Amino acid sequence: MKYLSRRLFIAATASAMAGCATNSFTSVSPAPAGLSLRNTKVYAYSFLDLRDPEFGPSMLDELDRQLTAAFEASAVTLKVLRFRDSEIGRSYALTNGGMAVPIRQTIESNAYREKALGNDYRIVIFPRRIAPAGAWKNYEIRWDLIDVRTDRVVWSSISEGRHLTLWKADEEPHERSKVIVDSVIKEMKKGELI
């Protein structure tokens, strides 16, 4: 009986925690009329792993997987490269001194992979702000969609979210990732990008 009570408590806690995750778009620079990502290839540069301790590695793995699947469901081929898996990112050390993140250099050093994929667009996913507040993690993520031919940002947005962490940073990775992915897909659909 004790075992069953413990399992019910854990299940109820996990369900409650998933409900405590939010992500909504607060700022959107709309895409030009008629722009659609359907039947295109997109290369994503995710810099969220710079904040791995706050998001958790399992959540970032799940986010990449869900984002790729959601794009594919909308007829978009997506390839994700995390910063620390890039040539520059492997030798990058995060310091407390506020060092600038080499976004442009990361993209330039990966040009041969983009060329091999033949992507039409790239999306840069960057953690603008993470603010731990006790058990809560508040964050802002910037999403910039860039047309590869012109190297211009064609859609830009900022999402704000938060999630509750009771025991470790990597709790409920599937549910937390789903909240973020669902909101970005909803925003892109609203802008008729997908």
UniProtKB/TrEMBL annotation:
<protein>
    <recommendedName>
        <fullName>DUF4136 domain-containing protein</fullName>
    </recommendedName>
</protein>
<feature type="signal peptide">
    <location>
        <begin position="1"/>
        <end position="18"/>
    </location>
</feature>
<dbReference type="InterPro" id="IPR006311">
    <property type="entry name" value="TAT_signal"/>
</dbReference>
<keyword id="KW-0732">Signal</keyword>
